[in-house]
């Protein structure tokens, strides 16, 4: 094993802070007993503040994919029409999952360089006079491309069309790193995961559920058992779960929520914005193009950079892993080999970013990728000139 910590700079799973690791490292307790009940009540109410909702948030012992499935099977029936926007690899996977469940998906094609386009969604909804479309599904932060969807614009597209479809949003790689508001933005189901902005190991995922989504669930006929919100919400009322919860991950979740709230969510978001900007400045200095083509939609949790033609991103990533013990995100799906992704989310500070960007710059040199030097310097200049958020400084 190389000395020092591995740099896990993929956009999830992210580095788990020591505080969270220590919180998890405790005896597993009786999940039907009073000690668990206090934990259950604490995390079930705390996680609502992270989603910015007063509605229930269901916590599954599952990866994010499970929560994708849960969002669909709890609200829809076989043959229902669903509109999705192909913002990238994760949107494509959610679409595939929906089709396998027997839903009729209208996947709006995208170029994988921007978030979901509200006008295209609006067009589909207006054309659907009989209201056969039952849900619109978008990915808030497309982890394969580093582009975000402006969810309020998608909400507005539904409202302007006067369309009653549910709005389902994947926030697996944006929750607790990019501003997100389940209630204020009128989202019906928000899907989240533990291993990205929440700084936990993989293994938990979430559905934040609006009243309208719950009501739709009463008539939804896709088969559901393990994922059934109804089964969860009864016991959750008292802090319990219908089956064995991932108790130790819930200890970790309690600690992660405490850390996020000590820093203040606004400061957490500002920290991610700042590190994303520093990363883009480094890219500009290197002469590498950011994949996301719409500046208003730049992701603050990761940046995907395009390789110069004829150069393989995986060769670069391999060289960096071997030489500097740092993992960077690979190009997914149609972007394989063409981009690499720098994760800058979760438990992350200025010097973690500088270690990351220095590793990238040295790697570009070692792998013979044409670039200009000075990206790390450009990031340092930006970080040094632009103050950290106030409360983070005080902490
Ligand atoms: C990571 C991720 C997923 C998949 O989550 P798993 O935990 O791997 O099942 C889905 N959507 C987005 C946007 C992601 O970043």
Shape: globular
User: What is the typical, i.e. mean, pLDDT?
Assistant: 97
Strand content: 5-15%
Q: Summarize the biggest pleated sheet.
A: 7 strands, mixed
Query: SSE string, helix = H, strand = E?
Result: EHHEHEHEHEEEHEEEHHHHEHEEHHH
Structural class: alpha/beta
> Within the CATH hierarchy, at the fold level, what is the topology of the largest domain?
Aspartate Aminotransferase, domain 2
Biggest β-sheet: strands ordered side by side in the sheet? 2-10-9-8-5-3-4
Separation of the first and last Cα atoms: 33 Å
CATH superfamily of the largest domain: Type I PLP-dependent aspartate aminotransferase-like (Major domain)
Domain module count = 2
User: What is the correct CATH architecture of the largest domain?
Assistant: 3-Layer(aba) Sandwich
Report low-confidence residues grouped into runs of 5 or more. Answer: none
Number of strands: 13
Bound molecules: pyridoxal-5'-phosphate
Oligomer: single chain
CATH class type of the largest domain: Alpha Beta
Note the total helix count.
14
């Amino acid at each position: 094993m190389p000395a020092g910590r591995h740099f896990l700079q993929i956009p999830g799973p992210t580095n788990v802070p020591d505080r969270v690791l220590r919180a998890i490292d405790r005896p597993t307790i009786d999940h039907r007993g009073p000690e668990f009940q206090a934990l259950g009540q604490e995390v079930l109410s705390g996680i609502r503040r992270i989603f910015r909702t007063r509605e229930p948030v269901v916590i599954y012992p599952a990866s994010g994919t499970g929560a994708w499935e849960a969002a669909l099977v709890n609200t829809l029936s076989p043959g229902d029409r669903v509109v999705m926007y192909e913002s990238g690899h994760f949107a494509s996977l959610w679409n595939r999952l929906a089709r396998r469940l027997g839903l009729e998906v209208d996947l709006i094609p995208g170029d994988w360089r921007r978030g979901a386009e509200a006008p295209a969604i609006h067009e589909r909804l207006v054309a659907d006079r009989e209201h056969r479309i039952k849900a619109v599904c978008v990915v808030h932060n497309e982890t394969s491309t580093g582009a975000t969807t402006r969810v309020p614009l998608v909400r507005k597209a539904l409202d302007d069309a006067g369309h009653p479809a549910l709005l389902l949003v994947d926030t697996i790689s944006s929750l607790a790193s990019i501003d997100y508001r389940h209630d204020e933005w009128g989202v019906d189901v928000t899907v989240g995961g533990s291993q990205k902005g929440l700084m936990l190991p993989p293994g938990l995922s979430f559905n934040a559920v609006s009243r309208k989504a719950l009501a739709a669930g009463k008539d939804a006929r896709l088969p559901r058992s393990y994922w059934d919100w109804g089964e969860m919400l009864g016991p959750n009322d008292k802090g319990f779960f219908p089956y064995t919860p991932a108790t130790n991950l819930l200890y970790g979740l309690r600690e992660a929520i405490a850390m996020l709230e000590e820093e203040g969510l606004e400061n957490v978001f500002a920290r991610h914005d700042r590190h994303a900007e520093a990363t883009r400045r480094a890219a500009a200095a290197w002469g590498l193009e950011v994949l996301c083509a719409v500046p208003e939609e730049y992701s603050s949790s990761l940046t995907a950079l395009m390789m110069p033609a004829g150069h393989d991103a995986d060769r670069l990533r391999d060289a960096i892993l071997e030489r500097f013990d740092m993992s960077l995100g690979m190009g997914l799906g149609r972007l394989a080999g063409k981009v690499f992704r720098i994760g800058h989310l979760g438990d992350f500070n200025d010097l973690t970013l500088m270690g990351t960007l220095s590793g990238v710059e040295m790697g570009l040199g070692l792998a013979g990728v044409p670039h200009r030097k000075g990206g790390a310097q450009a990031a340092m200049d930006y970080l040094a000139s632009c103050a950290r958020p106030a409360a983070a400084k005080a902490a």
